[in-house]
Structures are given as structure tokens and as C-alpha cells.
Amino acid sequence: MVLPPRIRLSEAEKDALLLEQASLIERPAARITELEAAIGKPRKTSSNSHLPPSKDGPGRGDRPKRPRRKRASRPGKSRPLTETPDKTERRMASECGHCGMDVSGTRQRCRQRYDHIELPIIRPVVTRVELFGGRCGGCGHRYKAQAPETIAPGSPFGPGIRSLLMYLHHSHHVGFERLSRMARELFGLTISEGAIANAFRRAGAGLATASEAIKRKLVTARIIASDETTTRVDGVTQWQWVFISDKAVLHKIAPRRAKSVAEDVLAGHRPDVWVSDRYAGQQELGSRHQVCLAHVLRDVQYAIDSGDTVFAPRIRDHLRWAIRVGKRRSQLKDGTLSAYATKADNKLDALMAAPVAHPAGKTLLKQIKAWRTKFFVFMTDRDVPATNNISEREIRPSVIFRKVTNGFRSDWGAQIHAGYRSVTGTARINGKPAFDAIRDLIDGKFALA
Questions:
Q1: CB–CB of 419/210 below 8 Å?
Q2: Among 197, 300, 345, 441, whose Cα sits 20 to 30 Å from the Cα of 180?
Q3: What residues contact residue 347 under an 8 Å CB cut-off, 6+ apart?
Q4: Could you report how far apart the first and last alpha carbons of the chain are, in Å?
Q5: 3-state secondary structure at position 277
């Protein structure tokens, strides 16, 4: 056996080789340490973290399901009759159904009343416009009749069609290809995907004007709630923000998640109370800040799942009690509500003062100390919600839209969606259906209450 010749290394080369080998050993050792530290920790789910339910996977989390309580039976209900039927058909009996006797001449009364509901065949109404004219005998120029105001030349598709297309696309997440097929198969209307895109683009100016009016209404509010989520624009991740007051809803799609987006919307306005989660970009935007207690309870649940059986369960019970008090504020007198607010603060201080032994409880205690002054604003102000669920409910349809359509192919498409959601969201909190709101916008009749 012939041994390879020895290779002589200098001291510097030896040190470099040893450092390289040490780094190769350190990387897997660090990974092993990380995995060992993770052993025994509960998996984060939508019930104990900010992960959405779609990330839970099969079983929706590690916690065992609670047995469902059997509901007491209740009497059945039938569909109520329409108050204003389009037509009524009355049928008189001609003979007795038992013996066959002729009863056509007898006095009868209504024994049964029910509604039969049907949709008529929907087909587009095509109006051919012919503008006559000629050559003027006085000046020699050609002249032509004026077009009707409601059906001016240009796009052949009327406001009813454009409103329906926008409603189906942005409210019900129907893509352009399916919209074109639905129009052809349901209504006998031939319209291409490009024509649909052009119809949406032409609505951009009206949506932008309406969004500016909504923004002006928003910045007069005393209480504003806000949230944000990711969206995709031309393959790039951007952020969709939502801002809600008691009279206005504003959606804004921006390339950043920074605090400057909210500051740009507020334009110097500082509301009395800002309601949001604990994201840094949502802080110091109002005189007072109410954090979402639903988010806090998820962190509390994670501490419980991690093994804290003392501190975290007490915090959970206390926060749930405070939320229950908030739900019945309308039934409480000012003095009673003030007493409850004092009790909530004192109880939380007492819980925080007690020694905490479990590491997960210590982490939770540190988080609570950081947000201590922002927990119970809703107990001193009847108009402030205890959670930010109103923002999450408002932004959820856009999250579903993103998952169904995979985002937007252009920036103008994203801005159309933000404007649509602003108009229909504002209409909803003012008691107006989304389709009626978008039809008024396309007709040029958009107005804030």
C-alpha cells in the first residue's frame, strides 16, 4: 500500500483549516440546540397566536375539541309571505274533494296562502341609436342630432351592466374569464375580458373622487379603528390598510406597512381614541389607544398551552370578564361603569404584582407591562370597542379575494379594488346595500350621509 505524500501546511493555513472545520461543526450544533429548545413547546395556531385559521392544518390546532352542548329543540319556521306580491292568483273550488259535490256557487274563504317565486329570463335590452343630420343650407357645414344624455356614444355597456360586473368581481371574487362566461350563459351578453377591464378602468376616476370624500369624512371622527393585511400587486407584496369610523370606511393599498401610511391618511388629524392591534406602525396615532383584547387573549392562550397554569389563566378570566362588562355598557349607569373600570385596573395590578414562576408566564407578564395603559380604555368610553374585530371583519373579504384571484396584475386594478371596498364598506355601515352603492357611483349620484 502506497501512502500519499505528506502535505506540509503553514501555521496560518492550519489555523484557517481549523476555523473552517469549526464553523462546519457549529452550524449543525446550533440547529440541534434550536430544535432541542423547541421540543415541548405547543404549536402556534389561530387560537393562540396571530396565525390565520388557514395555517392550522388538519384538526385546527392541537387543543382537544370541546364537546358540543346539545341545543334545546325549537319550533320550526316557514318562510314569511312577501308583503307586496307582484300579482295574486285566486282559485275557487269547483267541487268537493271528498264526495264530488258541486260547490262552485257556494260562498268560499281562503284556506291556504303561499308564495311562488320565480326569476324571469334575463336578457340585455339593446337600444339602437340613430343620429340624423345633413348639410346646412346657410353655412354649408354638416350637422348631426345630439345623442341622448343617458346613452351617449362610447362604451356600448350601460351602467347596470358595469355595476353588476364590478359587484360580482369585487364582492363575490368572480374572475374575468368566469365573468365573461357568466354574462354569456346567464344573460346572453357577449363581453370580452378586455371589455370588462376597460369598464373597470373607466370607473377609476369616480372611485378616486369617492375615496377622497370618504377620507375627508373619516378624519373628522373621534374614534378610528385600523388594521392591515398583505396583498399582491403585479407579483409584489404590498399592504392593504383599512380605517373605520362610525360613518366611513377607507381602504388603501400601499407598497409599505410603515406608520407613514396611516399618517398620510390622517393628514394631521389626531383622533381621541385609536383602536388596533399591537403592531408598531399603529401606535401613537391617537390621544389614547385601545389595543385589541382578542389578540391579547391569543397570547394568553399560548402561555396556557405552554404550561402556565397559574398566571395566564387568571389573566384570561379577568380579560373575559372585562369584555363581558363592555358588551352590556348600554345597560350600566355612569357610576357603575366607573366602578367596574376601577375594579378592572386594580385587579390587573394585583395579578401583575404576584410572583410568576413559569417562563411562559414571565414572557406574558412582560408583554402586559408594555401595554398596561391600553387595556381598558373601552371601560371609560362607551363608544370604544374592546376588540378590533370590526376591522378584521371589514378586511376579511379582501383576504378571500386575494386567495381566490392571487392578487392584482396592475396597480390600477389594486386601486380600483380599494376604492370599491371603501364605497361599499361605507354604504354598509350606513345601511345601504353594496350593489345600490356602486350603481349610484356609476350613475354619478354618490353622496355621503
A1: yes
A2: 441
A3: 318
A4: 96
A5: coil
Residues contacting 436, CB < 8 A, separation 6+: 427
Q: Higher-confidence residue: 51 or 419?
A: 419
Q: Do residues 293 and 387 lie in contact, with contact meaning Cβ atoms separated by under 8 Å? A: yes
Buried b / exposed e across 67-105, counting CB within 10 Å, b at 16+?
A: eeeeeeeeeeeeeeeeeeeeeeeeeeeeeeeeeeeeeee
Please answer whether residues 241 and 421 qualify as being in contact, where contact means their C-beta atoms are separated by less than 8 angstroms.
no
Report DSSP state, residue 301.
Answer: H
Asked whether 227 and 234 are in contact (CB, 8 A), the reply is no
Q: How many CA within 13 A on the CB side of residue 330?
A: 3
- How does pLDDT run across 49-78, given as a tens digit for each residue? 777 777 777 655 455 566 777 777 777 778
Whether 356 has a pLDDT exceeding 70, the answer reads yes
For residue 273, the surrounding DSSP H or E stretch is strand 273-276
- Tell me the per-residue pLDDT of 337-351, one tens digit each, with 9 for 90 and over: 999 999 999 999 999
pTM for the whole thing? 0.81
